Amino acid sequence: MIHATIKEIGENAVSEQEPILILFDRTATTTLRNYSVIQKITSTEKFSLKKGDSLFFDQQEYQIEHVGRLANENLNTVGHVTLIFDYYSEENSIVNGLYLTPHQLPEIHVGTQIKYK
Questions:
Q1: How many domains are there within the chain?
Q2: With bands split at pLDDT 50, 70 and 90, how would you rate the model's confidence at 105?
C-alpha cells in the first residue's frame, strides 16, 4: 500500500461540474497548483495500480475501473495522476487517468490521507 497526504488544494482544484481531481507532488508549478491537489507521497514503493485496486481518501473507498497507460509512470516520476469520477470510455480516455467508482468526488481537505491499494 502506498500512502500520501494532501498538502495543498488549489482554489480551482475542485468543481462539482467537473468530476475530476488532478494530483501532483510538490514539484507542480504555481499555475498548476491553482488547479491541482498537491500530495506528499510518503512511501518508497513503486506504483503499479491496476483495475480492481482501491483508492482511499481517509475512510472513503473508491474502486479503480481503468488505469490509463501513463498513470503509474507519472505517479512514480512526478506524483501526477488525474482521478476521474465518471464512466470510462475508450474514445475519451485520459492516458494519465484513474477512472474510479463511485462516481462522486470525495470529501477532501488539507491533511486527508490517500491510500493507494
A1: 1
A2: very high
Q: What is the CATH number of the domain that holds 14?
A: 2.40.33.40
Q: Are 65 and 52 in contact (CB under 8 A)?
A: no
Q: Is the pTM of this model over 0.90?
A: yes
- Average pLDDT rounded to a whole number, residues 65-86: 96
Q: Look at the chain and count its residues.
A: 117
d(CA 86, CA 48): 21
Domain containing residue 101: 2-116
CA nearest to 74, candidates 92, 97, 90, 91: 97
Strand 81-84 to 97-101 pairing: parallel
